[in-house]
Specification:
eight-stranded mixed beta sheet; globular; 636 residues; 20 helices; RNA-binding; five-stranded mixed beta sheet; alpha+beta
Length: 636
RNA sequence: GCCCAUAUAGCUCAGGGGUAGAGCACUCCCUUGGUAAGGGAGAGGUCGUAAGUUCGAAUCUUACUAUGGGCACCA
């Protein structure tokens, strides 16, 4: 007796399979069926259902079905590879977002050029429509078997499976692999909506001490249409790549002599300065005092803070003429403690909120560099709040409100919060951790802040909140952070005089909203696809003439816009207006003000906004009013 | 740092053992044209760097550097 999702019940003989159930409902469903869900557990279609159960037939329409397709694509890939490249060992091949990959162990890594032949072989295997069957093997025999055929990685995987876990082997044609399953009934069900995308190296078990395997990535969809849509989506994302736009819009560049360190050009630096001015305004309003600390600080301070030992390999340093070693600061916190410590503080002074647009350098591994997103020279919108333990909750709350306000004003409505608590390796006593975690959690609760729990992911000195925003095309970026720290104040003796007249150790809250200006601007570029809102746009308006008769008038208009605080340029070139419009549109200038004899006669401009083919003719004053209002920095 | 790929004019790219090519941009000339490329001419590169093979290397080999895609890393 089985119960279908619509509540109806059907009777079957014992040993009936998912296939039988699907077939009894209809031939269409039988054809589309990929697997069956028995009491919530996904199973092969051909596996007998040995009890009364709730049954759902899974087709490609369900996400679970799509995942099955991807999983099978990985298997077909592995079969193809082993057919074409005998001696290659298989390891693992999971489903990932939008596709799958399979890691192979091979002396010669795969090359991009190999993909076409492998994909061709995969299509052949699909065409063969090999039935896929499930077998349960004895554990010891399985290990011996895989070892005997030279599949040492598979043998190792089986050895690591928990005792009692059935060892299932899936066979398709002559090929077979250890797999938990379930799988499609046959390779033909995979269809043709898959594509191999790239090769990559990947460490066995994700550990850089292990051998590097050769990974092949692919994507797989329900049909060709979905595959095409996916490939289109990737292309669209590439169009907003901040490195491409950075070049096109003349925002910044990188060069070989300073890898990972951006050279900001006038356009990019304008965006930077606007963003900085905005954050400065918000932070001052939010009760922060801005400070500035040195770039070069003697090694001894970093030794005392613990950074030299723990992060030494990331620190740039220099030997001075008097043979001292100075570190180019990789972070600002120790310096902020120096400012705090320079005066004696009463509990009445707390909380004390210091902010610095702190320029930091970190020697990041070469392979980690990525445009503005991962750099070696960057500026944090850093801040440290010195407070008492009792103030952690309220300070966390005040900070989080500020952060959400800023994200919203910058156009990011969707923000997730992750709460990371004590890691295995940590400093400080457990009762201190209890207090820090409780305080942070209370702050979240008081604000009604929902968070994902990220166990064991905290900093070694304290728990933290991480703020992840979602951009216009749905990608997540972790930007803001709030970290509770009891360790650094202890190491660097940050204290205050309490009500009782005794010295107490201050608590330090490390916090950033943007994270780094470089990275955040990269995110903004991609979020807006290069079309910055007016307040951030490097050039806000261009006044373009139709003929040289309009030059004087254009200069006058331009001057007035400039006087109103707008960033404006004038295009008097001997070019057709079509040409000028095209060029400034490609440069993503938000407003093109065309002036000809008509406008000059009427004291108007013909305003064309980026992204629109329409234009409207307005008085100069009106144009200034409209643009100046829109160009206002958010947040009052 | 590790694997794979890439590096040719300001940009985007083609070419390929016999001493460099296109389009755009740039300069000059003609054109004064109403909302996404008007026409003509010219200038511009020791083909990422360094070795090697060769009569000859931008082209083949190796190393290095940077960049890209991943992996590891991201305090």
């Amino acid at each position: 007796m089985v119960t279908l999702p619509d509540g109806s019940k059907r009777e079957f003989a014992t040993g009936a399979t998912g296939e039988d159930v699907a077939g009894s409902i209809g031939p269409g469903l039988l054809k589309a069926a990929l697997a069956v869900k028995v009491n919530g557990e996904l199973r092969d279609l051909k596996r007998p259902i040995d009890q009364d159960a709730d049954i759902a037939i899974i087709t490609a329409r369900e996400n679970e079905g799509l995942e099955l397709l991807r999983h099978d694509a990985a298997h077909v890939l592995a079969e193809a590879v082993q057919e074409l490249f005998p001696g290659t060992q298989v390891t693992i091949g999971p489903v990932i977002e939008d596709g799958f990959f399979y890691d192979f162990a091979r002396d010669e890594p795969f090359r991009v050029d190999d993909l076409a032949a492998i994909e061709e072989k995969m299509r052949e295997i699909v065409a063969r429509d090999e039935p896929i069957t499930r077998e349960v093997w004895d554990r010891g025999e399985a290990i011996d078997h895989f070892r005997s055929i030279g599949e040492t990685y598979k043998a190792e995987i089986i050895e690591d499976l928990p005792e009692g876990e059935p060892i299932t082997i899936y066979r398709q044609g002559k090929w077979y692999d250890l797999c938990r399953g379930p799988h499609l009934p046959s390779t033909g069900k995979l269809g043709d909506a898959f594509k191999l995308l790239k090769v990559a190296g990947a460490y066995w078990r994700g550990d850089s001490r292990n051998a590097m395997l050769s990974r092949i990535y692919g994507t797989c969809w329900r049909d060709k249409k979905e595959l095409k849509a996916y490939l289109h989506r990737i292309e669209e994302a590439e169009k907003r790549d901040h490195r491409k736009l950075g070049k096109e819009l003349a925002l910044f560049h990188f060069q070989e002599e300073a890898p990972g360190m951006p050279f900001w050009h006038p356009n990019g630096w304008t965006v930077y300065q606007q963003l900085e001015a905005y954050i400065r305004k918000k932070q001052i309003k939010g009760g922060y005092q801005e400070i500035r600390t040195p770039q070069l600080v003697d090694r001894s301070l970093w030794e005392k803070s613990g950074h030299w030992e723990k992060f030494g390999e990331h620190i740039y340093s220099a030997i001075t003429a008097d043979e001292k070693q100075v570190a180019i600061k990789p972070m600002n916190c120790p310096c902020h403690v120096q400012v705090f410590n320079h005066h004696l503080h009463s509990y009445r002074d707390l909380p004390l909120r210091y902010a610095e647009f702190g320029s930091c350098h970190r020697y990041e591994p070469s392979g980690a560099l990525h445009g503005l997103m991962r750099v070696r020279a960057f500026t944090q919108d850093d801040g440290h709040i010195f407070c008492t333990r009792d103030q952690i909750t309220s300070e966390a709350e005040i900070f989080t409100r500020l952060l959400f306000e800023i994200y919203r004003e910058l156009g990011f409505e969707q923000v997730r919060v992750k709460f990371s608590d004590r890691p295995e390796i940590r400093a400080g006593a457990d009762d201190v951790w209890d207090q820090a975690e409780t305080a942070l959690k209370e702050a979240c609760e008081q604000m009604g802040l929902e968070f994902e729990y990220n166990p064991g992911e905290g900093a070694f000195y304290g728990p933290k909140l991480e703020f992840v925003l979602t951009d216009a095309i749905g990608r997540d970026w972790q930007c803001g952070t709030l970290q509770v720290d009891f360790i650094l104040p202890a190491r660097l003796d940050a204290t205050y005089i309490g009500e009782d007249g005794n010295r107490h150790q201050a608590v330090m809250l490390h916090r950033a909203i943007l994270g780094s200006f470089e990275r955040f601007i990269g995110i903004l570029i991609e979020h807006h696809a290069g079309r910055f809102p007016l307040w951030l746009a490097p050039t806000q308006a261009v006044v373009a003439t139709i003929t040289s008769d309009g030059d004087d008038y254009a200069n006058k208009v331009s001057e007035q816009l400039g006087a109103a605080g707008l960033r404006v340029t004038t295009d008097l070139r001997n070019e057709k207006i079509n040409y000028k419009v095209r060029e400034h549109s490609l440069a993503k200038v938000p407003a093109i003000l065309v002036v000809g004899s008509r406008e000059a006669g009427e004291g108007t401009v013909s305003m064309r906004r980026l992204g629109s083919r329409d234009q409207k003719t307005v008085q100069i004053d009106e144009a200034i009013r409209l643009l100046a209002a829109e160009a206002k920095m958010p947040g009052g």
